[in-house]
Amino acid sequence: FLPHLVASMEQVEETYIMVKPDGVQRGLVGEIISRFEKKGFRLTGLKLFQCPKELAEEHYKDLKTKSFFPKLINYITSGPVVCMAWEGVGAVASARKLIGSTNPLQAEPGTIRGDLAVQTGRNVVHGSDSPENGKREIALWFKEGELCQWTAVQAPWLRE
Ligand code: UDP
Ligand code: MG
């Protein structure tokens, strides 16, 4: 029995989820929001936003040296995105599972990318890859007054 491991699995985390421009253009915003809403995470931020080039570059700065970087920046700035902050126990890894593999053809059916996309360069949604990046990305995409803390009535029906 490893109590510290259990404690870490019980951690409330914040994750930055974004419907990319193809998801907005294809009318998938409601469908994508719905997956996280139904799972039982708490929405703390939501907006439609035209991303400036500088912000896209900062968000994806770890990929700066990749050959696909310029195309990725063009893609993310090609139309409005839907920015979301979600919170919940184990939310970062769980959201990544709901999203599925980076390449939609390898993503499992039932995942967002597995169900709704066919190409890595048009994979409809972003999700933070660690709790640290969740915090970093939420701070990058949202101003403080845009986030909202609230108690969901369903909370006692989600966790005992
Ligand atoms: N991407 C791409 N070509 C690649 C790898 C990634 O166009 O070969 C894009 C894709 O949109 C991906 C994003 O860059 O979602 C960020 O890449 P990452 O490896 O972080 O994938 P993710 O965390 O989004 O699954
Ligand atoms: Mg990533």
From TrEMBL:
GO terms for molecular function: ATP binding; nucleoside diphosphate kinase activity. It catalyses: a ribonucleoside 5'-diphosphate + ATP = a ribonucleoside 5'-triphosphate + ADP; a 2'-deoxyribonucleoside 5'-diphosphate + ATP = a 2'-deoxyribonucleoside 5'-triphosphate + ADP. Keywords: ATP-binding, Kinase, Nucleotide-binding, Transferase. Residues 12-149 form the Nucleoside diphosphate kinase-like domain. One of its GO terms (biological process) is GTP biosynthetic process. Its cofactor is Mg(2+). Signal peptide: none annotated. Its EC number is 2.7.4.6. ATP binds at K20, F68, R96, T102, R113, N123. The active site is at H126 (pros-phosphohistidine intermediate). Belongs to the NDK family. This is Nucleoside diphosphate kinase. It comes from Rubroshorea leprosula. The lineage of its organism: Eukaryota, Viridiplantae, Streptophyta, Embryophyta, Tracheophyta. The chain holds residues 80 to 239 of 239 of the full protein.
